[in-house]
Design goal:
This protein is mainly α and 151 residues long. The protein has helices at residues 3-16, 28-52, 59-145. The longest helix is centred in the C-terminal third of the chain and has 87 residues, at 59-145.
Amino acid sequence: MTIDEQKRLAAEAQAEGLEESDSPRISRGAVVGLIVLVILLLAGVGFAVFYLLQPGAPTETLRDVFIIIVAFEFMVIGLALVILIVQLAKLVNMLQNEVRPILDSASEAANTMRGTARFLSHNLTEPVIKASAGIATVRKALDLFNFGRRK
């Protein structure tokens, strides 16, 4: 492939959006949206602090509501942790009772194949090699004495 063809293919891939890059590209709209979201969040926090510092603001009621919400979140997180621990226990049980026997049978099959290969090597391959070596020796000896060929 010539350099011109490589440049042409790279230009086509870039035009189609198929260019490979080391890091994922973030679109301009996502960055602008994220900046707007951060600005709105900061403005909301500033407004809430200003409002709650005014005399007569329902700060205590708001505090109590937030305490209840945080307690509810802790209960949800605790429930999620319990579910996670149960799933982890099931995974460990599956690894011990299902995966280990599969690994043991695979190891047994590999040992059987190793024994079969050793058996074939000793009882089939070695005699064939020895016979071929003997035939090659006799053929070479005959070639040395020129019995096997006419010139």
